[in-house]
Write a structure and sequence with these properties.
Layout (H helix, E strand, L loop, with lengths): L3 H17 L16 E3 L6 E3 L3 E2 L9 H5 L2 H9 L4 E3 L7 H11 L7 E6 L4 H15 L4 E7 L10 E7 L6 H10 L4 E5 L11 H8 L2 E5 L6 H5 L7 H4 L6 H10 L6 E2 L6 H9 L8 H13 L1
Parallel strand pairs: 3-4, 4-5, 5-6, 6-7, 7-8, 8-9, 9-10
Antiparallel strand pairs: 1-2
The structure holds NADP nicotinamide-adenine-dinucleotide phosphate.
């Protein structure tokens, strides 16, 4: 499953981009308004930098309420979306995703990511099997071990990852990242919470592990910080038209970040968020400027 050679080639590319001071990483955005993708280091497969989270927002069990979320998924796929992140821990979210994928006639390009969240091998296999049937899939692209529970599982999956959103697990997570062969890791990172810049992001970069970022809006709290304020003029120069795009472009322009997975229950927010995955990403100087601005509001 792992190709050390491929990882090394990709890491070399990352280093060159950084030294050259160009837009970081393996960004496939030669032209403005092009869909931005980054490569999964263990395989070289490209994924768009903006994905979709489903915790809370997709946890609705009545069919008619699930169908109200159809425009969200439609906006996502119509704008190049691929990575959808869910979990058995998110109530009815996996069932909602499966039902809406059916409704959209199984859109091409889905990168399915869920989690296993139980102890014991058989319980893990049963849970993954149940998730496959809820999503209506034969195979998951990515299986992540939720909150570091009993992480030795095997199944019908392409990539293996591990996930948490709690700072208290960072030490344990970094030990696993240093010692195990992981394709993906998922944790929290946003312009208001940059703890993962200290150890997790550098380790992921160094080890060639793809990074999914949860809570890119700090569960929505970042929006209250900038309420009533316009996006600064200098940010609009690289095509940032909203605070959602400002926050997301900050996250995905970190050299170690592969994809952010914002959650939303609204199609207009899904559309807004997907626009952050097109055009230019901030360079190091622009990132500093964004940070300086947010620290003063
Ligand atoms: N341990 C783990 O593995 C773990 C832990 C936490 C999260 N996650 C994953 O990460 C995903 C994202 O994290 P999260 O859901 O906690 O928080 P988040 O994505 O940081 O924030 C979601 C909130 O932002 C709002 N929002 C989204 N787009 C917006 C926009 N363009 N403008 C204004 N408001 C906007 C949403 O409200 P509206 O509905 O009104 O748009 C929602 O309240 C989760 O859904 C889940 O898939 C994983």
């Amino acid at each position: 499953m792992f190709s050390e050679k491929r990882r090394k080639i990709i890491k070399a590319g990352l280093a060159t981009a950084l030294v050259a001071g160009t837009n970081p990483t393996l960004i496939r955005a030669e032209m403005k308004k092009q869909l931005i993708k980054k490569a999964i280091p263990s395989s070289g497969e490209d994924i768009p930098v903006i994905g979709l989270g489903t915790s809370r927002t997709f946890d609705v069990d009545k069919q008619e309420r699930q169908f109200k979320l159809l425009p969200v998924l439609d906006a996502f796929f119509s704008n190049g979306g691929s990575m959808i992140d869910s979990s058995p821990m998110y109530g009815a979210s996996e069932a909602t995703v499966g039902r809406l994928l059916d409704k959209l006639d199984r859109p091409k390009g889905l990168f399915s990511a869920t989690k296993v969240w139980t102890d014991g091998k058989q319980a893990g296999i049963d849970q993954m099997q149940n998730s496959l049937s809820l999503w209506g899939l034969k195979q998951f692209d990515l299986m992540q071990i939720h909150n570091l529970r009993d992480w030795k599982v095997q199944g019908k999956i392409r990539y293996i990852g591990i996930t948490t959103s709690h700072n208290r697990f960072h030490e344990e997570l970094s030990t696993i990242m240093k010692n195990e062969e992981l394709d993906f890791v998922q944790f929290s990172y946003n312009i208001g919470n940059r703890t993962s810049e200290e150890t997790l992001l550098p380790i992921a970069f160094d080890r060639g592990i793809a990074v999914l970022i949860n809570r890119p809006f700090q569960r929505g709290d970042l929006f209250s910080k900038v309420k009533g304020k316009e996006v600064p003029e200098w940010a609009t120069e690289i095509g940032i038209k909203s605070w959602g795009q400002f926050f997301l472009k900050f996250v995905v322009s970190h050299p170690a970040v592969s994809c952010a997975i914002p959650a939303t229950s609204k199609a207009r927010h899904a559309l807004d968020n997907m626009q952050a995955g097109f055009g230019e990403l901030p360079d190091a100087a622009m990132r500093e400027r964004m940070l300086g601005y947010i620290e003063t509001v």
